[in-house]
Amino acid sequence: MTVAIRYQTRNGNTQAFAEQIATVAGVPAESIDTPVEQADTLFFGGGTYFMKPDKSASAFMKSLDATKVKQIALFTTSGGPEMVSDKALTKIATEKGIPVIGHFHQVMGGKGMKIIGSAGGKLKAEQIELVKEFAQKMLAQ
Ligand SMILES: Cc1cc2nc3c(=O)[nH]c(=O)nc-3n(C[C@H](O)[C@H](O)[C@H](O)COP(=O)(O)O)c2cc1C
């Protein structure tokens, strides 16, 4: 099975989860600047900015080729509990005919909000455990 990991991040939170997934999947976590050649399972993650995914994350999802990417395991982060990026990105994947086989979402609160002086990318032990469990579950599908 071919596995790929791509993430969009502004402040490091989503990247930190991608890097944990990489330790389980044994493939590198790469930014969406690296195109996906082929993947049976693509782990794809992004943040939430003003109630939307970043434009680059939506554009990346739109650029995927359903003949090359068989299924997506989606992971998103946000400050608050609403899963708006998950919903928006899932909608694009569905329109493209690529099934989303799982959804991982973490609420980061103010972590990574530079405006309040908080650095991103620091995960709690329980978040590391949760994302690793997610990765294992997705890889078994
Ligand atoms: C400019 C900006 C706008 C944001 N807007 C929202 C928002 O509308 N809703 C929300 O839940 N979180 C919001 N957040 C919080 C981010 O979604 C959260 O920090 C997320 O983990 C960012 O991922 P990243 O560190 O990978 O960029 C915002 C963060 C920034 C920096």
From TrEMBL:
Pfam families: Flavodoxin_5. Residues 5-82 form the Flavodoxin domain. It comes from the Bacteria. This is Flavoprotein.
